[in-house]
Each structure stands twice: as structure tokens, then as C-alpha cells.
Amino acid sequence: MSSENQEVAATEQAPALSGDTNTPTQNTDWKASLSDEIRNEKSLENISDIESLAKGYVHAQRLVGADKIPVPNKFATEEDWNKVYEKLGRPNDPTGYKFNLPEDKTVDEAALKGFAEQAHKLGLLPTQADGVVKFYNDMIGQELSEANSIAEAARNKATTELKTEWGQAFDQKIAAANQVVASVFPQGFMSMNMEDGTKLGDNPAVIKAFAMLAERMGEDKIVQGDGPIMQTPKQIDKEINSLTAPGSAYWDKNHPGHQDAVAEVLALREQKQTV
Questions:
Q1: Separation of alpha carbons 120 and 268, rounded Å
Q2: What is the pTM of this model?
Q3: CB neighbours of residue 162 within 10 Å
Q4: Is residue 220 a part of any domain in this protein?
């Protein structure tokens, strides 16, 4: 064979040098070799390659044998649910709940015990039950604070209004009204809440009504003691008008009671100046 023919033969026998000589061309769609049923499975839509599929499989195998909690269906019995609650961490009995309550708060032990029993029945975890109690306690505390603010504002307003109207007779009128209430109604009657959040005993109209009732019943004489009976400005004016009515002894110098009438009117006017 000539040297020229040998070169041609060697050329024909030499492998191609382009590309990877050891790896055949790969199909980029790794699902192409799968059957249609498997290839169209929705759970494979987000798996981009064989490695991702392998990772998912390994992870699933690691979960095999792990402590899993089955979700009961609508036919589950109370016993089925109790098994779930126990695995989740529910206490063995209601006494296992511990509530973090403020030390300065008065606790209704009976109510708390009842809640613990219901929480256990419903399968609440300790942190959940404690969270519910804390939420309720905070809500009640805020409502009480707001109610106290409303009551205090109403009480101050009523005191100012009645002191303006009654003057020095304020304390005696209040004492007389309270005595009437105590003699007729049960304890706590005046502390009853009204629709606007204020208490019955902080309503000026209510207080004046009982003060008037006390006056008609003569209760003011009972509560006055040895001190002078104080009158409101309106009562003083009414008495002055009665003493100075036309034809009264106040205007008739010859009347035997003239001097007493004049002295009493002067005393009433002086008293009114100090009210």
C-alpha cells in the first residue's frame, strides 16, 4: 500500500475530536421516558431534573417511621380526638393547666376550674389555654378601667351640680337621701349600672328625688343630729317670700310678731349669703 493510501485509511479510522467522546447526547426532558400516566402526574410538575426527584424520594424515606399524627375525619369518635390531643401535648387532666395570672388580681377559682375542664375537653394545649385566660383577663381589666373612669366622671359632675344647687345643705341632703335608700332598698342598690355606664347613685336626678323624699318623710331631722338644719338657696328664698308676703307681720310694725319676722328674714338673708 502506498503512503498516500495509508494516510487516507488512517483518516477514516480516526475518531471524531468534536464534543464529548465518552457521553452520548442526553435528553433534557427527564420525563420523556415515563409513561403518559406518570409523566402527567401533577406532583411532578415542579421537579426539574432527576436530582430533584431523588432528593424528594430520600426526604420521603426519612419520614417513614416518624411519629405522625393522623387527622381525624368527620366520622372520628371522641376517643380518636383524645388520642390526637394527647400526642399534641394536652395535659392528662384539667389540673395540668397552669395559668400565669397577675398576683394583684382576685381569682375566681371556681370559674378558673370550670374553664380548665372545658379547655381539656376541647383539646387545648397549655399555651393555648393560658393565652385565652390572659386575653380574657386583659379584656376585663380594660373594661373595668373604662367603667371606673366613666363612673368617676359622672360622680364628679353630680357632686359639682348638687353642691351648686344645695350649697351648705349638700352634706345633709346627701346623708338624708342615703338614709332613705338604706331603709327601703337592699345594699348595693345605688351602685347599679345604668345604660350609659354610670351608676344609679351618681345620677343627680336620682339623688335629688331621694333627698326630696327624705324631706317629706322627715328623715332630715334624724340625720341632722345636734347641728343646725341647713337649707338650700331655693328653700331660703321660699321661706323669705312667705315671711315677707303682703299683709304679713313683717310689714306691720304694730303686729306683735313684727320684730321676730324682721329678725328671721335678716337671719335667712345672711344665711343665704354664706351658701
A1: 74
A2: 0.46
A3: 20
A4: no
Give the domain range for residue 269. Answer: 231-275
Cβ–Cβ < 8 Å for 207, 177: yes
Q: What is the pLDDT tens value at each position of the chain, 275 positions in all? A: 545 554 544 444 444 444 444 444 444 688 888 888 888 888 888 888 888 888 877 777 766 655 677 778 888 888 889 888 988 899 999 999 999 888 777 778 899 999 999 999 999 999 999 999 999 988 988 888 888 888 899 899 999 999 998 988 899 889 988 888 888 788 888 888 888 878 888 888 889 888 888 887 764 444 444 445 556 778 778 888 888 888 888 888 888 777 777 777 777 777 676 65
Please indicate, yes or no, if residue 258 is contained in any of the structural domains.
Answer: yes
The one-character DSSP state at 34 is S
- Please check whether residue 206 lies inside any domain of the structure: no
Q: How many structural domains comprise the chain?
A: 1
